[in-house]
Design goal:
Elements lengths: L1 H6 L1 H43 L18 E5 L1 H4 L2 H13 L4 E7 L13 H4 L11 H10 L3 E7 L4 H6 L28 H16 L4 E5 L22 H18 L7 E7 L15 H4 L5 E5 L19 H23 L3 H5 L5 E3 L9 H13 L5 E4 L14
Parallel strand pairs: 1-2, 1-8, 2-3, 3-4, 4-5, 5-6, 7-8
Length: 402
């Protein structure tokens, strides 16, 4: 072997030279080859990162309370159907209606929209998502400059009674939950723990865009066996005092919470609250509510007044007369309260915003009856009102065109 190499020195030198040059070239080119690999990988990562969508943070918009306010009521079930709700939005598009009031929590106690980023409220288990796109729907209404109110049925709450029966109105011996004639259970109005729950609902509702919260069923129950009933949290306190304490607590908490800045509130009261000076056994007194809400909404439906009220054998047949009497009483009492407490008579008077009837029980209601109620409201110096129709079918021909 050594001999062979000695005899071929020239070839050996040539081989070593070629090998050396090859190694040098390889060492020079190798980093470039790997750099191309890593560069492409880096570019791919940049493209991937740039194509990942950023999380969109929802920011609600709000609409100022219109003056005058002219509204209609929408159930959560109608709100859950784009086709059905569009029919009501069209009424607002084409007539004087500028406000839509939507159920947030009805007598069932269920909250109808998704609860997001609020584990405290979600833990109660009262969420039943009927209107999945409610916050988007509200923003669509706002783009049309439609004011949106959320309705909360407060102490009538079938779900929460199941969740916390210890807070419920009970039978007289306290052994079981009391129910009204419709079989619906109630929370004792004196339960402060439940008051905080209602405030949580108001806060979450405002976060998704509601301009105003309307509090309904803010009273003690009245329809049922009232001889077999007891109240674990308010048995020793007058009902009117319990309700006034609730109104004040609600007002104070909302006013002091930065997250609820700008939120308006309204209170639904029995129609006869405007002309009755006792609490009628349900705890509602007009003067106890006025200071603590932005708007007072007496349910002055002519169909709900007893026979021979103010001399009218069938009050439902006299829509103008009943509304004018009831709301004039409300105006007189609100101005008197303002005078006696050093408040503005105009401000207190303008808090009055009646529920008007767009349905018939014993008397058929049409354009003339609906318009008569609106006229009566205007004739006592008030400008705002909301129509109630449990079926959500409204007499469009009674409304002025826009």
């Amino acid at each position: 072997m050594i001999r062979i190499l000695k005899n071929n020195k020239h070839d050996v030198y040539l081989f070593v030279g070629v090998l050396s040059v090859s190694l040098i070239i390889l060492l020079i080119l190798l980093p470039f080859a790997f750099r191309e690999h890593y560069f492409r990988k880096e570019v791919a990562n940049v493209v991937l990162a740039s194509s990942t969508p950023e999380e969109v943070v929802f920011t609600p918009t709000y609409v100022e309370t219109p003056e005058p306010l002219k509204g209609i009521y929408m159930t959560s079930w109608v709100a859950s159907s784009k086709q059905l709700r569009e029919n009501l939005v069209k009424i607002a598009d084409q007539t004087e209606i500028n406000t839509i009031l939507i159920d947030i929590k009805d007598y069932s106690g269920k909250i109808v929209f998704p609860i997001e980023n609020n584990p405290t409220l979600k833990a109660f288990g009262s969420e039943e998502v009927r209107v999945r796109d409610l916050k988007e729907f509200i923003q669509e209404l706002h783009k049309k400059n439609i004011y949106v109110i959320g309705r909360v049925a407060v102490f009538q709450d079938a779900y929460f009674v199941e969740h916390r029966p210890d807070l419920a109105v009970k039978t007289k011996d306290g052994s079981s939950v009391w129910k009204d004639r419709k079989g619906i259970a109630w929370i004792d109005s004196g339960s402060r723990e439940y008051w905080d729950y209602i405030i949580q609902i108001a806060k979450e509702s405002h976060k998704i865009g509601f301009d105003e919260i309307n509090f309904d069923y803010i009273r003690f129950p009245s329809d049922g066996n009232m001889k077999d009933i007891s109240f674990p949290f308010s048995s020793t306190t007058p009902k009117a005092t319990v309700m006034k304490n609730f109104f004040e607590y609600l007002h104070t908490k909302i006013e002091s919470d930065p997250e609820l800045e700008g939120l308006k509130t309204s209170a639904d009261l029995f129609g006869m609250v405007t002309n009755t000076y006792d609490d009628m056994g349900i705890g509602q007194l007009l003067e106890n509510a006025i200071p603590y809400f932005d708007y007072i909404m007496p349910m002055v439906y002519p169909s709900h007044y007893p026979p021979n009220f103010e001399g009218y054998k069938e009050p439902e047949a006299y829509p103008y007369e009943i509304i004018k009497f009831a709301m004039n009483e409300a105006v007189v009492r609100s101005e008197a309260l303002a005078s006696s407490t050093g408040q503005s008579k105009i401000e207190y008077k303008n808090k009055m915003r009646p529920w008007l009837q767009d349905f018939g029980l014993r008397v058929s209601y049409g354009p003339a009856e609906v318009r008569a109620q609106i006229k009566a409201t205007n004739d006592v110096g008030l400008t705002s009102w909301i129509l109630w129709s449990p079926s959500n079918k409204y007499t469009v021909s009674a409304l002025n065109k826009e």
